[in-house]
Every structure is written in C-alpha cells, then in structure tokens.
Amino acid sequence: MNIEMIKKIIKDKEVEILDTVSKSAVFIPIIKKNNELHIIFEIRSKNLKTQPNEICFPGGKIEKNEVPLSCAIRETCEELNISKYNIEVIDELDLLVTPFNMSIYSFCGIIKGIDYDSINFNKDEVSSIFTVPLVELLLQKPQLNNMAININPYPSFPFHLIQDGKAYNWKSGVYPVYFYKYKDYIIWGITAKILKSFLDTLKQGL
C-alpha cells in the first residue's frame, strides 16, 4: 500500500451512504386530469407483506447493479401497468435517509400518452389508485407530529469500552411525521415526507 494506490482506490470508489441496509426509489407521477395537474397515489395491496393498505408513490427496492432512476421507472411501469414511453422524467428530488437504515431516492415526472381512467394498474401490488389536484396540495399546510428518537443499546453492548460506561450521554433526536388530508384519504409517513419536500421545492420556485 502506497499513496498512489490510496489515491486510485479513493478516486475510483462511488460515494455510499453509510449504514444503509435498504435502498429504494420512488416516482411522483403528475398527470393532467380535467384540464388540471394531479398527482397519482397508490394504495398498496392488502396481500403485500410490508405496509399493506398504505398510501404510497410507485416505487420499490433498488436491485443489484440498478441505478435509482431505472428502479423508479421500472417500478412505476410494473405497478401502473404503463410503458416507459408514458413516462417523462423531470428530475431527481431530495434524497431521504431515515433513522431506520433506509435511503430513498425520489424522482418526479409526467405521465403522458394515456388517460388516467385508462390506467389498468397491477392488482397484485396495488389495490386502488387515486389523484389529488396539485394546487390542493400546494395550498395545504400538513399536520406535523414529532416522534422522539432515542438510542437504546442492547444489553450485550460493551459499556466498559466507552467513556462513562452505562452513564454515557447518548444523543437523541426528533423525527417529524407529516399528514396530508384529501377527502377520505390520509397521506402520511415517508410518502408525506417526500411529498412535502417536492411541494416545498415548487413553492420556493414560485
């Protein structure tokens, strides 16, 4: 090992997010409906093992050797049963890193060349879809409720190796949880967090 080897290794390495166990990508689909812009949301199938019946954007786990954008497009095509040619990608949005070792890449774009009422979504993964007018979401102030994040070491943690042992002053944090309401739908959790970031970006540009 010498300095030249170190330089090459570091320069060739892609930047990773430390401690991430799961990497996913989602897509915020915008569609024109009744001559105004709407956002499409999905309700996950009740038969899914994770988060059944929850409201979400199209998306899923990034596969090996797959880039986030390809994942977002693939999952959108699979879940909405549309072609990649029906998707016009606008750009990447903010990256969400959760306290639960998850990183979620998000993108937004336009669903084109197909009417909303013609979307024959994949019923194995999606129980139903609905839209919310974009202007409605831009005008709405989401409800905010904070959750505490605390570190609780396992009993097997080697307290004898750290300063102050069991009396160590662990950091704590706050995890904001947002809620958007539209008719009988409640959009919350990670989906609402990604939605808020997208809407805040639009508001800042107005």
What is this structure's SSE topology?
Elements: H1 3-12, E1 22-33, E2 36-44, E3 55-56, E4 59-61, H2 68-80, E5 87-92, E6 96-97, E7 102-111, E8 126-133, H3 134-139, E9 143-150, E10 172-182, E11 185-188, H4 189-205
Parallel strand pairs: 1-7
Antiparallel strand pairs: 1-2, 1-4, 2-3, 2-8, 5-7, 6-7, 9-10, 10-11
Characterise this structure.
- By secondary structure, this protein is an alpha+beta fold.
- The chain has a single domain (about 20-205), classed as Nucleoside Triphosphate Pyrophosphohydrolase.
- The chain has four helices and eleven strands.
- The chain has helices at about 5-10, 70-80, 135-140, 190-205; strands at about 20-35, 35-45, 55, 60, 85-90, 95, 100-110, 125-135, 145-150, 170-180, 185-190.
- The strands form two sheets. Strands 1, 2, 3, 4, 5, 6, 7 and 8 form an eight-stranded mixed sheet that branches. The protein has a three-stranded antiparallel sheet with strand order 9-10-11.
- A hairpin with a 2-residue loop joins strand 1 and strand 2.
- The radius of gyration is 21 Å and the shape is globular.
- The model has no long low-confidence stretch (mean pLDDT about 95).
Task: Looking at this protein, list some descriptive labels.
206 residues; alpha+beta; Nucleoside Triphosphate Pyrophosphohydrolase; 4 helices
Which class best fits the helix and strand makeup?
Answer: alpha+beta
Count all strands and give the number: 11
| Amount of helix | 10-25%
Low-confidence stretches: none
Distance between the termini: 53 Å
Tell me the series of helices and strands, N- to C-terminal: HEEEEHEEEEHEEEH
Number of contiguous helices: 4
Task: Work out the strand percent.
Answer: 35-45%
Q: Describe the largest sheet.
A: 8 strands, mixed
